[in-house]
């Protein structure tokens, strides 16, 4: 028994979603443009907007929150 799923999947490759979308709707100029917009441009734009919003306006996060420190390296092994 063979099952066909229309899941984009979230394995190791980040392009699984856009490729599955294009596989389902077809490879044409309109669908490629929508795919690039929805899977690349929109996430990048929203990332910048939300970072600015939460860093500058709400002050919920700061750039030091992303700092990686190896001061306690002996604890990790």
Question: What do these coordinates show?
Answer:
- The protein is mostly helical and 77 residues long.
- Helices cover 56% and strands 0% of the residues.
- The protein is built from three helices and no strands.
- Helix 1 runs antiparallel to helix 2.
- It is elongated and about 50 Å long.
- The model has no long low-confidence stretch (mean pLDDT 80).
Helix content: 55-70%
Gross morphology is: elongated
List how many beta strands DSSP finds.
0
Q: Report on the biggest sheet.
A: none
Poorly predicted parts: none
Number of helical regions? 3
Write a concise synopsis of the structure shown.
This protein is mostly helical. It has three helices and no strands. It is elongated and about 50 Å long.
Characteristic terms for this protein:
77 residues, mainly alpha, 56% helix, elongated
Question: What is this structure's SSE topology?
Answer:
Layout: H1 16-25, H2 29-57, H3 73-76
